[in-house]
Amino acid sequence: MDRKEKRSLSEYNNELKLKGFNVFQIESDGQATKIYSRKDFYKICLTTGKSLIHYADRSYDMDGTILFFGNPHIPYSWETISTTYVGYTCLFSEDFLKQSERTESLQHSPFFKIGGTPILEITDNQRDFLNSIFRKMIEEQQTDYVYKDELIRNYISLIIHESLKLQPSEHFDKHKNASSRITTVFLELLERQFPIESIDRPLSLRTAQDYAKALSIHVNYLNKAVKEITGKSTTNHITDRIITEAKALLQHTEWNVSDIAYSLGFDYPTYFNNFFKKVTGTNPKALRDQLV
Question: Is CATH 2.60.120.280 the right assignment for the domain spanning 4-173?
Fold first, then answer.
């Protein structure tokens, strides 16, 4: 690997923030579990090796070459079992790929949606073809070609269209208890919304209905499952986590109360103040004064 391919993940993420796209070759040791924590970037991986992937409510025991599609709204982890693991990774935001309002959201894609097909098994011939596309993206990423973003989008679309021709992997086991499964996914998705890192990226999932929509299930089913497994309602879990984050922002940032309210998804500071006081018994400014 050259110097660019050896740069740290944080450096790759910095690039992603700037242009919404990155592609690189991977080559790592096994015996490691990787948890993808980016909230805003989709992922396509072409890898060869043995691994165990936990994705939403499923576990995949894979050996060989696979094509993996990661949705930032769906929790997953990747345990590498092989002593070596090679391939390519492409990270991109939905805004980078979606250039038209008529373009279907990636969350509705058969590969990226919950309950979809996140993993495909790849033959040697298919791997050679896909390898060539990833190499072209890496090469193009380093050029000064004025339309390179458009060209790279076409390469990503080509990978997706080629994938539609392939059969999904069946090497997975579902959790036995449906309520436990959906509760686990909900709680992990809830936690992935935090911490709030920027006023410009406010919390987008604030209600049980929001989470049910993100998980493509009926809100009544979500509420029933969460209550059955945890003894607390979906709304209570969301409220508790928002209050915890609000207290952290009040204590550890210099953002004014209006900015904190907006960052947590409240349209008006008054709504946030009323919400906060109803749950904690005090208002945000009074709490901040106590913490100073």
Answer: yes
254-259: Cβ within 8 A, 24+ apart: 255/199, 257/284, 257/285, 257/288, 259/199
Q: What residues contact residue 247 under an 8 Å CB cut-off, 6+ apart?
A: 287
Residue 20, both tokens: 């919404």
- pLDDT > 70 in the chain, percent: 80
What are residue 62's DSSP bridge partners? 51
CATH code of domain 177-291: 1.10.10.60
CB 158, CB 133: distance < 8 Å: yes
Q: Are 243 and 280 in contact (CB under 8 A)?
A: yes
Which residues 6+ apart lie within 8 Å of 33 measured at CB? 77, 78, 79, 80
Q: Are 27 and 84 spatial neighbours (Cβ–Cβ below 8 Å)?
A: yes
Q: What are phi and psi of 79, to 5 degrees?
A: -100, 115
Residue identified by tokens 């709030």 is 196
| Distance separating alpha carbons of residues 126 and 171, to the nearest angstrom | 19
Write out the two tokens for 264.
């947590």
For 251, left (φ over 0), alpha (ψ -120 to 50), or beta?
Answer: alpha
Confidence at 264, pLDDT banded by 50, 70, 90: very high
The tokens of 86 are what? 């090679």
Is there a contact between 247 and 209 (Cβ–Cβ < 8 Å)?
Answer: no
Q: Which of 90, 81, 70 is nearest to 192 (CA)?
A: 70
Confidence class for position 1, pLDDT limits 50, 70, 90: very low
Q: Read off the pLDDT of each residue in 83-112 and give the average, rounded to a whole number.
A: 75
Domain ranges of the chain: 4-173, 177-291
pLDDT tens-digit map of 123-133? 999 999 999 99
**What pLDDT shows up at residue 170?**
54
